[in-house]
Amino acid sequence: MTAQSRQRTPNPHLGAYYGIVASAFASLVVLLAMAEQLGWSDGAVARLMILLPLLLYLAIAVAARTLDVEDFFTSGRRVPQVYNAFLLAAITVGGPGFFAYTGAVFFLGFDALAIGLGWTCGLLLSGVLFVPYLRRAGAYTLPAFLGQRFRSHEIQLAASALQVVPTALLLAAEINIAATVAAIFLPASYWVSVLLIAVLVAATGILGGMRALTWSGSAQFIAGAIGLAVPLIVVSVLLTNLPAPQFTYGEMFGSLQSAETAAGMSPVEPGDIGALPAPEPMAAVKPFLQSFGAITERGFFALFFCFALGTAALPSLIARSGVTCSVADQRRSTAWALLLVAVFVITAPSLAAFAKVLMFRDMALIPTEGLPAWLSSLSLGQLAQASDINGDGTIGAGELLISRDGIALALPILAELPYVLTALMAAAGLAIALAAAGSHLFTLGASLADDVYGTLDRKPIVLPRLMAAWAVIAACAFLVAVYLFIAEVDALHTAVTAFAFAAATFFPVLLLAIWWPRCTTWGALASLATGFGILFLALTVGGLFGVAETAVGTAMSCLVAAVLAFGAGVGVSLYGPEPASLDTAYYEEMRKPDGETIFDQAQARAATASSEED
C-alpha cells in the first residue's frame, strides 16, 4: 500500500523577502558609493561592504533555525525550484570558480573553457541520469541512497568514508579563497580570516542545517550575482557602449591582439607553460585567442570530462536532490542551475578579456605616459608586481606578474572605477564562496552523523541525531581550519582533485545503481573501491613518476579510474549471485516518476506501526 503524498507548499512570500534582500544590498552599494565621494577612506568602505552582508547572512540563518529533522536534512522538501537552483549554481562554481577560474581564463584563454564546459555538461548529465531518481528515493545523502538501494550498511559506511576526500578538499578550497579575499579587505590576517569564515559557515550549518543553508545561500547568490554583474556591465559600457559583456567583448579582440603583440606575446606550444596557472603572481605569456596553447586537445577533453563526471556525481550537489516539492520541480531546478552556470561560464571570458585589454593597452603606453595609476593599487593589494628587467624603458608581458585569483578584483581598478565597485566584487566572490563552503561542510557533517554514527548506533543514546550532526559539523570546520594553518592550498588545483575523486568514485556506481537492475551490493562496493583506489594510487605513488603531477594528469587518471570502476562494478555483479527480490522491488519503485519519496513512505509506515503497537 502506497502512502499518501503530503502537501508541501513553499512560502508564498519568498519573492518579496528576497526582493527586500536584493534592494538592501543594492542600497548599501549606493550609500557606500556616496560615502566614498564624500571622502570616506577606502578601508572604511571595504569593511562595511564586506561585514554588513555577512551579518545579514547570519541573521537569515538565525531566522531559519530548526530542530525538526526533516527541515534540518532536506529543508522540509519544499524549496522552490529557482531558489534551489541558486544553491546548485553556487556549489558548482564556488569561490574557486569566481576567482581562480576567471584568472585561468585570463592566463589561458580558450584552453580554460574546459572547466566551465565541464560544469555545464555535468549539470546536464546529473539532471538526466541521476536527479529524478534520487529525488524519488528521498535519501538525505548520497551514501544513504546507496545504502537504501542495496539494503547494505556496509556500502553506506564505505561511501560516507570515501566522500570525505572530495568534499573536504572543496571545503578547504572555499575557505582558503574566502579567507584570502577577506584578508585583503579587512584589518585581519589570513589566519584570523580562516577562523572567521570557518566559524560563520559552521554556525549557519548548526543553526538550521539544510534549511538555514538554503535561505542564507539564496541571499548569498543574489549578492554574488549583483556584485559580479554591476562592475562588469559598467566596464562593458565604457569599452563597448553596450551593457551586455557576454555578447560585446568580441569587439575587443582586435584591440586585445594588438595589445598582446605590443607587450611581446607570441603563440606558445603545449608544455611551455603549466596546464593551469598557479596562485602565485606569474606572467601572462599565452595569447588569449590561441587554442590548445597551454594544453593539448587530449588534455582539454580530459579536463572537460573530469569536471563533467565530477559535477554530475558531486556529493554536495547530490545532497540537494531531495529538497524540492516533487520530481518535476527537481528536474526544473537542475535546468535553472544549468542556465545560471552557463551564464557565468560565458561571462568569465568577457571579464578576462576586458581586464587583459585594459592592462596591456596601458602597458604599451608606458614609454610616453609613464606607469599607469592602477599598477600601484594592484601592487598594494599584492595582486600584481612589475619591474623593467631588461632596462628598455617598458614593461613587457614577461615582466608583469599577475595574481591568478585577483583578476576579478583587478578589473574595477584597471577601469579606474570607484573603489566601492572593487569592494563589491570582493563581497560577491566571498558570498559565493560562503554558500559553497556551507554546503560542503553540511554534506560532511550530515553524512558522518547520519550515515556513520546513525548506522553504528541505531538507537542513539550518547547523542541525539541532531546533536551528533552539530558536533560533526563543528569538528569538521575546526579540522579544515587546522589543515589550512599547516598546508598551502591552491584552490584551483584542489578543486580539480576533488572533482576527479567525485568522478572516479561515485559516477560509475551511481550510473550502475540507477540504470542497471542487475547491479549488486558487491558490485557497487567493487566500483567504489576501484575508482577511489586507482585514483588515489595515481596521485600518490604515480605522482612520484610524473603520472598525475599536473591538473591534466589528474584528469586523465580520473577517467582511467572511472572506466575501470565501471568495469569492476559490472564484472563483480555478473560474477556473483543475482540481486535479491527486495533490491529489485526497490529499483522498480525508484524508477516511478510520481508519488511521495520512498524514504518518506518507509518513515510513515514505521510511524504507523509504532503507533499501533502503543
Summarize the structure in words.
- This protein has 24 helices and three strands.
- It has helices at about 15-35, 40-65, 70-75, 80-110, 115-135, 140-150, 155-160, 165-185, 190-240, 245-250, 255-260, 295-310, 315-320, 325-365, 365-370, 375-380, 405-415, 420-455, 465-485, 490-515, 520-540, 550-575, 580-590, 600-614; strands at about 280-285, 385, 400.
- A three-stranded antiparallel beta sheet has the order 1-3-2.
- The longest helix is centred in the middle third of the chain and has 51 residues, at about 190-240.
- The relative contact order is 0.17.
Walk me through the topology:
Layout: H1 14-37, H2 42-63, H3 69-74, H4 81-108, H5 113-137, H6 142-150, H7 153-162, H8 164-185, H9 190-240, H10 245-248, H11 253-262, E1 282-283, H12 297-312, H13 315-318, H14 327-363, H15 366-369, H16 373-380, E2 384-386, E3 400-402, H17 407-414, H18 419-456, H19 465-486, H20 491-515, H21 521-540, H22 551-575, H23 581-590, H24 598-613
Helix pairs in contact: 1-2, 1-9, 1-18, 2-9, 2-18, 4-5, 4-8, 4-9, 4-14, 4-18, 5-12, 5-14, 6-7, 7-18, 7-21, 8-9, 8-18, 8-19, 8-20, 9-18, 9-19, 11-14, 12-20, 12-22, 14-17, 17-18, 18-19, 20-21, 20-22, 21-22
